[in-house]
Write a structure and sequence with these properties.
Structural class: alpha+beta
Radius of gyration: 38 Å
CATH architecture of the largest domain: 3-Layer(aba) Sandwich
CATH class of the largest domain: Alpha Beta
Number of strands: 25
Strand content: 15-25%
Pfam families: MecA_N, PBP_dimer, Transpeptidase
Low-confidence stretches: 10-21
InterPro entries: Beta-lactam/transpept, Beta-lactam/transpept-like, MecA_N, NTF2-like_dom_sf, PBP_dimer, PBP_dimer_sf, PCN-bd_Tpept
Distance between the termini: 122 Å
Mean pLDDT: 93
GO biological process, one term: response to antibiotic
Subcellular location: Membrane
Protein name: Beta-lactam-inducible penicillin-binding protein
CATH topology of the largest domain: Beta-lactamase
Helix content: 25-40%
Length: about 675
């Protein structure tokens, strides 16, 4: 009996204590719910905080999965939900709903979204325990959202910025091309697909795959390929086939084609690897991206930022969508270059498809006026999606049009002789008027050189050989002897002062640095001799070579090159490379190279050119005769608006460096008639 009474007493005390415990208020429950909301913890919100009516109306997947997917698709981030706190002495009646004004803020791909709502909590008993639960519907996602509505989003593409030359001439633009397609019911002769495939550089199987898509109907236009607007002849052949048509589409265009190809590069479909790498920058699998040249190097400036629109689509027919958020696209930047398109095209055309490179600079400003690699590809082909067969043909072309030669460095040959002369004159070891007696075709210092001898092309040059004659006759022996006089240390230091061993500081373009030798030093007298006339292991980049002739026109200053028009020009890169007297002496001698020397093709009647030719010998050990690259670096003495450096490979059977001088002369003649 006593035990029973004790048990009843315990139960009574527990009941009293339970009654004394403070019950959870609706504000406390709302604060917990909002904490989960701000963290995107929708599963917890659904499981522990939604009232029975809400759970009955909305299954877990509609509440949880839908909101998680919307966060991902719409880029919802930085959710901030707050509520208006009730009065401190507020009393809550379990029989009545508890209402709280809330404020919702979030960031989306289309910009910020903010709204205010009233949220209601109801008191319900679950598992014999009363508590407050949230009453929810779709309007807490977006206020205008109702049952059966859909949330959609649309990207508003930003136009890619154009690339233009110094005068605003367009080098890369948002133009038009053509989508080539077939209307199945009009293709009377299916065997024509073989001809169509050949013209488009595709296969019959690929065409059939397009025609066999589920949406295709006999009367519909089915796209099977693209082509640039410049391919007029190809388009004419295609549309002449019954059943084939062409429709205009937006497409990147390169009006100068191959002449600018290695400079501008091209755009193409983004690859899976690029998409993975750039996924945080908003790229999608349908985007075009810069693939080569400036299109790639300036991608961030050219691309722009797509806009985005988030909207609610009502189920009613013809109902206007409700815009939730909208962000206008930011168009890509138009990038203006220092390039002179007319000069670039003239240089490319003058090379007539020969393998080589050319570069031009303004000696007064350092602005880069031309960067040419020849031959080249047509970038318009790549925009449309080049076929495997066509790309393979370009890869296997003996002239390698895909290779960017202006970005490389090559043996400079005799074009380095004016630089060697300037170093010697500044060191005081080379006296311009002091002649050397040189006899025979070859020479060596003494027997310590073994079998190595320096050869010269014109042993008929009359003695004594002074600086002027050494350049006119391009005498290797003269420069070898002058290099020995100044010594390895002086010559090496002089070349370094001209920028050898340093990367050319050209923003937005990657160029191979010029080198004195593989390790940057001259290890023997033979190597010193060879390097004095641009052989040995010496290599120069074609732009750097053009720049090294600036000091002859600026009395000793080499300017930092600029390619982007908004860069500050006339910045000094190297100074005090030579005195005004040294520069004047070499200018006179380089004019005589054209008038009296072996660049007669550049000896024009009305355009007084000066410069230096060069023939770089590329002979492997044991070869009787190797390949030769020809050079000509030049400027107009009367009006030196630009320095032009040009190199053509394999000129051994075309007249050597004079072959290149003739090409350069064509450029000057074309530019003389250019407005």
């Amino acid at each position: 009996m006593k035990k029973a009474l004790f048990g009843l007493l315990i139960l009574f005390l527990m009941a009293v204590l339970a009654g004394c415990q403070e019950k959870t208020t609706p504000e406390e429950r709302l604060a917990e719910y909002i904490s989960h909301w701000n963290k995107g913890e929708f599963a917890a919100m659904y499981k522990d905080y939604l009232n029975a009516g809400t759970k009955e109306a909305f299954p877990a997947e509609e509440f949880v999965d839908r909101q998680e997917k919307l966060q991902e698709d719409l880029g919802i981030d930085k959710i901030e939900v707050t509520y208006d706190k009730p009065a401190e002495d507020a009393e809550w009646d379990a029989e009545k709903p508890a209402d709280f004004p809330i404020q919702v803020k979030m960031e989306t791909l289309a910009g910020p979204v903010e709204f205010e709502k009233t949220i209601t909590l109801l008191n319900e008993t679950r598992d014999d325990e009363a508590n407050w639960f949230v009453e929810w519907d779709q309007s807490y996602i977006f206020p205008e959202l109702e049952p059966d509505d859909e949330i959609g989003f649309t990207r508003i593409p930003a136009y890619r910025g154009e690339i233009v030359d110094r005068d605003g001439l367009v080098l890369a633009k948002n133009g038009t091309g053509y989508s080539i397609g077939i209307v199945p019911e009009k293709l009377a002769d299916p065997s024509k697909k073989t001809e169509i495939a050949k013209l488009l550089g595709t296969t019959v199987e690929a065409i059939d795959a397009q025609l066999n898509q589920s949406w295709v109907k006999p009367e519909l236009f089915v796209p099977i390929g693209k082509t640039a607007a410049t391919n007029g002849a190809l388009i004419d052949k295609l549309v002449a086939i019954p059943g084939v048509g062409a429709r205009t589409i937006e497409m990147r265009e390169y009006p100068y084609g191959p002449a600018m190809a290695h400079l501008t590069g091209y755009t193409g479909a983004i690859s899976a690897e690029q998409l993975e790498e750039l996924k945080d920058k908003g790229y999608t699998e349908t985007d075009q991206i810069g693939r080569r040249g400036l299109e790639s190097l300036l991608e961030d400036r050219l691309r722009g930022t797509d806009g985005m629109q988030i909207y609610i689509k009502k189920p009613q027919e013809n109902a206007e969508p409700i815009i939730i958020a909208e962000q206008e696209p930011v168009e890509g930047e138009t990038v203006k270059l220092t390039i002179n398109a007319s000069l670039q095209k003239a240089a490319y055309d003058s090379m007539k498809g020969e393998t080589g490179a050319a570069a031009s600079v303004d000696p007064k400003t350092g602005e880069v006026l031309a960067l040419v690699s020849s031959p080249a590809y047509d970038p318009n082909e790549f925009v449309t999606g080049i076929s495997g067969a066509r790309y393979k043909a370009l890869e296997e072309d003996a002239k390698n049009p895909l290779f960017n030669r202006f970005a490389q460095s090559y043996v400079p040959g005799s074009t380095i002789k004016p630089i060697t002369a300037a170093i010697g004159m500044e060191a005081g070891t080379l006296k311009p008027d002091e002649g050397l007696t040189i006899n025979g075709k070859t020479w060596q210092k003494d027997d310590s050189w073994g079998t190595y001898r320096v050869s010269r092309l014109h042993p008929e040059a009359p003695n004594p050989i002074d600086l002027n004659k050494s350049l006119i006759y391009s005498d290797n022996i003269y420069y070898a002897q002058q290099a020995l006089k100044m010594g390895r240390e002086t010559f090496t230091e002089g070349l370094k002062q001209f920028g050898f061993g340093e990367t050319v500081p050209l923003e937005a373009m990657e160029l191979t640095a010029s080198q004195i030798s593989n390790d940057g030093s001259l290890g023997s007298e033979g190597q010193l001799a060879d390097s004095s006339f641009g052989q040995g292991q010496m290599l120069t980049n074609i732009l750097h070579l053009a720049m090294m002739y600036e000091p002859f026109l600026t009395d000793g200053t080499m300017l930092k090159p600029t390619l982007l028009f908004d860069e500050e020009d006339a910045q000094v890169w190297k100074k005090d490379l030579m005195s005004a007297d040294t520069a004047a002496t070499l200018r006179t001698a380089m004019r005589n190279v054209v008038v009296d020397g072996y660049a007669q093709s550049a000896n024009l009647d009305n355009i007084p050119l000066a410069g230096k030719t060069g023939t770089a010998e590329l002979k492997a050990a044991g070869e009787a005769r190797g390949k030769e690259n020809g050079y000509f670096v030049s400027y107009n003495t009367k009006d030196p608006k630009f320095i032009l450096a040009m190199m053509v490979e394999n000129v051994e059977d075309n007249g050597g460096s004079d072959y290149v001088a003739a090409m350069a002369a064509e450029v000057y003649k074309l530019m003389a008639t250019s407005p």
